[in-house]
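Researcher: Next entry in the queue.
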Amino acid sequence: MNRRESPSRMNPFLTSKDTILDRIGRRLAERLTAQTSGYEPYTPSDPETLARTLRPGDILLIEGNHKVSAAIKYLTQSTWSHAAFFAGDEIPLTLDQAARSVIDRPQLVEVNLGEGCVAVPLSKYSTYNTRICRPIGLTPDDRDAVVSFMVSRLGLKYDMKNIFDMLRYFMPTPPVPVRLRRRMLAFGSGDPTRAICSTLIAQAFEQIRYPILPEITRAPGRAAATSTFSRAEILHIRHHSLYTPRDFDLSPYFAVVKPTLEYGFDYKRLEWGAVPPITG
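Model: Structure for this entry, 280 residues:
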């Protein structure tokens, strides 16, 4: 056998098998991304305010209303089921896209089930609850590196090698012990040409050694004068496949930015309706 032959030529079934899996995966994805009825956001996002507030490198968390969103929110015990990365004007645009308003211009990089890594506009999430999480203290070079990493991944396929793992998401509240929930979300083939949700964002920050929720172990240090032991924290970067959208919210290294408070919020200027009388 010629060692230089490609795997697909040595075994043509590998290529056809991947195609079949992708087709089945897309069919499953269509059902999982169907919207659920009755969703109403408490405070829907204002895309124009988001556009003024977001900076390259920020993470936008979204409370989704798809069938898969319910399972992710249950498994992570969180409001947030999706994460998108704000790249701003670094995303290459067509002439048609460049002519659009700022909220309709692709500025977010995200990975969608069945679709892969794509660029979408802020207006996509105008009817959703969202939260901005901002990495603190990034150097300009590191910010550029994270943005470049995400933009370079546009066009990657969604990881459907393990499509049968997606079947668990058809159960709105799968009976899974708490200690196994994070592992349950960490599925995928490990193929670098494919991607999964917030794990791609975590991988981008992993490249520059920026912590999200690192594992911390405490090691005894030198004995102090008071006979107590000082302890040093040692950060261990978790593998990017273990990260979920809520981790950016919980991270002590990402600030939560609320757009309504960024531009001189004054509660005295709010107009309230008449207070209904209390009837006994």
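Model: The radius of gyration is 22 Å.
Researcher: Noted, moving on.
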